[in-house]
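Following up on my earlier thread - several people asked me to post the actual chain instead of describing it. Fair enough. Here it is, all 145 residues.
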Amino acid sequence: MPEPTPSDPIRIAFVCVQNAGRSQMAYAFARRERDRRGLQSEIDLVTGGTRPADHVHPAVVDAMHEIGIAISDRIPREVTVDELRESDYAITMGCSAADVCPAGWGGESRDWDLDDPDGRSPAAVAAIRDEIETRVEALFDELAG
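Reply from S.P.:
Thanks for posting it. Predicted structure:
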């Protein structure tokens, strides 16, 4: 992958099938981490799904609210081929990356292999949330290193 020039932000795409749970949490944590580290001009974030749902899962909204992050206004959206082609990293949440990353896409694809929070107990959703938070922080540590 070519190194970005100082004027080109690193683009990270958080992708899931429905864009209604894991990818929404990852995106919210990434926004928080980017802001905490003052990297707004260095890191661009996108999230989307291959078959987006109508709404973010209520249990996910609740789990994020428990730790002071509001995502109730988020609406799942479809990720575009152009967004993926322009991304340096495509992070999938446990879905196959094969149907997410188009042929010829040059970025790095990572699958975090996380359980789907849909239909899970509040404690299980909180555990998934906490794992996502840890992985997002580690990703930002890696990019800063």
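The longest strand covers residues 10-16. That should answer part of your original question.
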